[in-house]
Amino acid sequence: MTNTPHSETTTDGIRIHAAAQFLPGESEPQNKRYVFAYKITMTNVDSAPAKLVSRHWVIVDSEGRREEVRGRGVVGEYPKLAPGESYSYVSYSPIGTKWGTMEGSYTFVRDDGTRFQVAIGRFFLVPTAPPLVLESPSR
């Protein structure tokens, strides 16, 4: 996706689309708090089911401050994707500067117990990003 603050990557049959939007009403620039909503859509383009079990985020602000976030599932869920199925969610990230980046990975597991890492390509937390489309994509 050229010339866009969003990202789209595919790893081991799982496609991840990531996009963010600045939330001025939630932000407090005078307190160096800039809040962004981000939307992730994951699609299983493989022929085998896969279940998300954990996440790892690397968030970097424009001054180079780096924060790593690890956890189980996403927004309290552990989506299992059948072939061709998609799952979307929206979450939030506050940072201390007007712009920054996010990237990371998800750990998925196949029905046979095989674990694998799926890359979340770098996307940008910028006030000029186009608004998010919050409804789920068509399957």
Concise summary:
With 139 residues, this protein is mainly β.
Describe this structure in words.
This protein has 139 residues and is an all-beta fold. It has one domain (7-125): Immunoglobulin-like (Sandwich), CATH 2.60.40.1470. The protein is 0% helix and 56% strand. The protein contains no helices and 9 strands. It has strands spanning 7-11, 14-22, 34-44, 50-61, 66-72, 80-81, 86-95, 100-110, 115-125. The strands form 2 sheets. Strands 4, 5, 6, 8 and 9 form a 5-stranded antiparallel sheet that branches. It has a 4-stranded antiparallel sheet with strand order 1-2-3-7, with no helix packed on it. Strand 4 (50-61) and strand 5 form a beta hairpin. The protein is elongated, with a radius of gyration of 15 Å. The protein starts with 6 loop residues before the first strand and ends in a 14-residue tail after the last strand. The model has no long low-confidence stretch (mean pLDDT 93).
